UniProtKB/TrEMBL annotation:
Keywords: Metal-binding, Zinc, Zinc-finger. SMART domains: PDZ, RING. The gene is lnx2b. Residues 150-165 have a biased composition (Basic and acidic residues). Residues 207-292, 320-403, 450-535, 585-671 form the PDZ domain. Signal peptide: none annotated. Residues 42-80 form the RING-type domain. This is Ligand of numb-protein X 2b. Residues 143-166, 403-428 are annotated as: Disordered.
Length: 675
């Protein structure tokens, strides 16, 4: 059988993925239990493939083997045809799944006696293997004497370099990718028996085809992530209402986009991924990794769905209701609707004499979060009806009941104005406190610019703006276009995307949109105008795109001046100085036996220094999921009022796990890039 034995090199660190000691640039080491088909073996190292890459001439190699070989040569090792790395593509999902299922031994098999699929080894090491945990703790103590030292401590999991060079994700990639700081909610342990409360996250790779009537029609997705950001992967942050993606209903927030029309997005910068997603075409084929929630140790479906979970954003209670039909075709007697002012599916009415009305637990105006485990937070009445029709005798509902519903008295005729008047007040936002200040992530920065010009009193500046502290994300005022007819266009200093700080000394950073427009009009009437702006910068150290791709990137970063509804890329906001950030507090509640339901990345990285902490995954069926306010890409700046700035991930993880029933997260949320 194949095996890879770790070299006895004490100077090399323990790899978080395979648990062996090897040089950082080398492939991970595994000891395989069974014979491996020759088709799954690398032609260079003659071992089972790791991160397999296919060449145009039909051969397959490990990513590290091939990239190392092509640094010295320019041909395929087997048939010696001319070859460059950018011509190669990640192997098919089928091949990657077969490799993930290979049986391997724990490197500490003598002590823990465990064997498992290769894809399960990393979570085993980080959450269940006592020997690996002990070795890791000893290595950290040798490297850094103080547990709570603020600098120099590397976190659990795979090294940043490994994560960023991973060409694609497997079916269980949500568990496998353990970037520094990852809190894997599937493996939160109980203090009693030291065993996982839930066996694993259920994740599936699916292909979603979207047909566009117009080749340039917006998909309606907001995207975060990219290899140039701490998130690494490209992740859907939000589905925009009444768009192509929303009508289709198969994509959801938190899905990781692996490929677009056979173009891999597994290790590309954010702007490059956006350019690929914005390419005009009628058929868009997306390969996405979708979290399906937890596979529970307790077989009861309500194990992690029942109970009271309160959302401070819109106070209410999460309730599970199971309706049992006398026969499969029996109707439930529920009318479902969508609302104009809120996404999702709502109960309009319960038909008198129907099964739901007789049961009495569902009520008018309940928001349907899930049916039979299918996420409907952003679903449609049509998709909900299909799930109900396809169900067996038992139909499990998870609904959110707002406090004002009880006051409605079951009335379904109230208009949206009446509902809005009793809705809870908007959450309070506040300027980022001085103790929460931090530097931008590695690779992002900003610079302040000032332009002073004399002009005719009636001559326009020639700019359009958006943002303002009254918009949903409390964005600063920013420039959406610089028109060729204005005096600022001739000066050339001010660009689209610049954030306005002041005009003639009048502060613009705390104004609403209408207030900013009014101030700009007043000050533009002067003959002398002094404008201060901040330009945020994303610097990607690697630029291996060809000329055609560069043209696309230019179109993304430098839009035409006549672009309508233009908004900056998500990465632009990452470079904004801390004093421009607005935060809000999100309170999550749970029972002792639940996970919070989100994973984080960030903290100290040797290659990037101190990185902010970001939300990477939100797991269906958990408090974070049902609360609905946390989004992928949100930055965590404090936990229970204690700043995360300067903290390493191995300090933040215990802090979060110690919060048994309630935690307050202070977050900064930027809107994802729109495609």
């Amino acid at each position: 059988s194949y095996s890879r034995v770790a070299p006895c090199l004490c100077s090399f660190p323990l790899a978080g993925e395979c648990g062996q000691q090897h040089e950082g640039q080398d492939s991970h080491l595994y000891e395989y239990q069974d014979e491996v088909d020759d088709e799954l073996v690398c032609h260079i190292c003659l071992q089972p493939l790791l991160k397999p890459m296919d060449t145009p001439c039909g051969h397959t190699y490990c990513f590290h083997c091939l990239s190392s070989f092509l640094k010295e040569q320019d041909f395929c090792p087997v048939d010696r045809q001319r070859l460059q790395l950018h011509q190669c593509r990640p192997s098919s999902l089928l091949v990657r799944n077969l490799l993930d299922k290979l049986t391997v031994l724990c490197p500490h098999y003598a002590e823990c006696q465990q064997q498992m699929q290769r894809c399960e080894l990393q979570p085993h090491l980080h959450n269940r293997c006592p020997v690996f945990r002990k070795l890791r703790e000893e290595a950290e103590r040798r490297k850094r004497p103080s547990w709570n030292e603020l600098k120099g401590r590397k976190g659990d999991g795979e090294s940043p370099g490994d994560a960023k060079h991973m060409p694609t994700l497997s079916r269980v990639a949500a568990r496998d990718q353990a970037e520094p700081g990852l809190i894997n909610p599937a493996y939160e342990e109980s203090e009693d028996d030291n065993t996982p409360l839930r066996s694993s996250l259920v994740a599936e790779a699916n292909v979603v085809e979207l047909f566009r009537e117009e080749p340039e029609e917006e998909l309606g997705l907001r995207i975060v992530g990219g290899k140039d950001t701490p998130l690494g992967n490209i992740v859907i942050q939000e589905i925009v209402r009444d768009t192509l993606a929303a009508r289709d209903g198969r994509l959801a927030p938190g899905d990781h986009i692996l490929e677009v029309n056979d173009v891999s997005l597994a290790s590309v910068p954010h702007s490059w991924a956006i350019a690929v997603l914005r390419r005009p075409c009628s058929l868009l084929r997306l390969t996405v990794m979708q979290e399906k929630g937890f596979k529970c140790r307790d077989p009861r479906p309500e194990h992690h769905l029942h109970g009271n979970t309160t959302s401070n954003h819109n106070p209410g209670t999460v309730i599970q209701v199971t309706l049992v039909k006398s026969q499969r075709t029996e109707p439930l007697g529920i009318k479902l609707i969508r609302k104009s002012d809120e996404s999702g599916v709502f109960i309009l009415d319960l038909l008198s004499g129907g099964l739901a009305a007789k049961d009495g637990k569902l009520r008018n105006n309940d928001k349907v979060l899930a049916i039979n485990g299918h996420d409907l937070r952003h679903g449609t009445p049509e998709s909900a009806a299909q799930i109900i029709q396809a169900s067996e005798v038992r139909v499990n509902f998870v609904v959110m009941r707002h406090t004002e519903t009880q006051e409605d008295g079951g009335s379904s005729g109230e208009g949206p104005q009446g509902r809005a008047s009793r809705r809870a007040p908007e959450p309070q936002y506040f300027r980022r406190r001085s103790t929460y200040m931090k530097d931008p992530p590695g690779g992002f920065s900003s610079q302040e610019k000032t332009v002073s010009l004399k002009k005719e009193p009636r001559l326009s500046l020639g700019i359009t703006i958006a943002g303002g502290r009254d918009c949903r994300s409390r964005l600063p005022v920013y420039i959406t276009s610089v028109q060729p007819v204005g005096c600022l266009h001739r000066d050339g200093t001010i660009k689209t995307g610049d954030i306005l700080l002041s005009i003639n000394g009048v502060d613009l950073t705390q104004l609403t949109y209408n207030e900013a427009v009014s101030v700009l009009k007043t000050q533009t009437a002067q003959s002398q105008v002094v404008l201060r702006v901040i330009q945020t910068i994303s610097e990607d150290p690697e630029d291996d795109s060809d000329a055609a791709n560069k043209d696309e990137l230019d179109a993304v970063e430098n839009p035409r001046d006549d672009s309508l509804n233009w908004s900056p890329l998500w990465t632009r906001w990452l470079g904004l100085p801390s004093h421009m950030h607005w935060c809000r507090d999100i309170v999550l509640l749970k029972t002792n036996n639940e996970s919070w339901g989100f994973s984080i990345v960030g903290g100290y990285e040797e290659s990037h220094g101190q990185q902010p902490f970001f939300i990477k995954t939100i797991v269906p069926g958990t408090p974070a999921h049902f609360d609905g306010r946390l989004k992928c890409g949100d930055e965590i700046v404090a936990v229970n009022g204690a700043t995360t700035v300067g903290m390493n991930n191995s300090s933040l993880i215990p802090m979060l796990k110690l919060q048994k029933n309630k935690v307050t997260l202070t977050v900064v949320s930027w809107p994802g890039s729109l495609v």
